[in-house]
Design goal:
Layout lengths: L21 H25 L2 H8 L3 H7 L3 H26 L5 H18 L3 H4 L16 H14 L10 H19 L7 H19 L2
Helix pairs in contact: 1-2, 1-4, 2-3, 4-5, 4-7, 5-9, 7-8, 8-9
Amino acid sequence: MSENQAVTPNESTPLRRQPVQQRSAQRVERMLDASAELLQEVGYEALTTTLIAKRAGVAVGSLYQFFPDKRAVVQALTQRNLDRFVAAVSEQLGNDPHQHWWDVVDQLLDIYLQMHREVPGFSKVHFGDVVDVRLLDEQRTNNRVITDSLANLVAGHVDLDPERLTLPIAIAVEAADGLLNFAFRNDPQGDPEVLAETKDLIKGYLASRFGE
């Protein structure tokens, strides 16, 4: 997916109003891009709407037309990151729709690692927990949103009972979340030994549930 692909507003994207014209949509994208760059540079606590507007080249009033505060901007950015993650996973799965789930785990983690290393701001907020554990959805934790998205994707590409997928995937997501934070704690590229162990641990656990 293109890095310039526009965000698709949905119930989890807190836009005050939808950008109808292309120019407005592009302005919203610049705000999200600016917030991503600033998150990478100064972190969430130091982020302000004034900084975002200045970096995006728009008036603060223009930002407030679409977002009530910085949290809403970061929420929209996080949703965009999740959309891109899911799209990348879907594309990989589509390249080989009948692959073994073992290979799917590798691909999921590799896509996450690539985003962590290359997507501005992603390493600072991931899928939103730094801001709020329910940033993406008021009714579900961020990890639950990811779990549901992955379960829906994987169900169509592996020969496993969909009803058996959700809980094991939820446990794998929670375990991977903690281990990936550990891997990147002291190494901006991720400790390769910890990353390798993470893959082995997730595969071992899922093998105990799904079989090899």
